[in-house]
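task queued by scheduler; priority normal; single chain, no ligands, no partner chains; default sampling; output format set to structure tokens
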Amino acid sequence: MQYILLLLVMLTTTSCEAQAENLNNISELMWKNRVILLLSSDDDKRNQQLFAKYKEAVIDRDLVWFIVQDTQVISNYQGGISMQFVERTKDTFPLNKYRVLLIGKDGGIKLRAQQLDITELISTIDSMPMRQQEMLQQND
């Protein structure tokens, strides 16, 4: 009986931990990552190829990108993404007027654009004070 109870506790704990890992809201990335939000378009494959081409720059700048579709998302985020993520993201960061948003580690919108321009995003990020400090620390 003790073994069955122990097994149930272990399964419940594992299940809760797996659910806790799912990303529910962009605010969970604050102070860890910068975020690029893209409204889905016909260029989704091209945009993914651009992110792949600049993979090292994306990693170096702690970037997590999301291509937001109607009810799902394409991303380089390493964990799971909850079902509510898309809805919460669209409520918090409306992507109607602008198709691309750059969100800083502090959660503020740093850039709005109509189309993805990776070099502009990198340049914008590299001009931020927090990024300047990161670059100085990397050189030490």
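post-processing summary
- The mean pLDDT is 85.
- The beta strands are 34-39, 63-68, 73-75, 100-103, 109-113.
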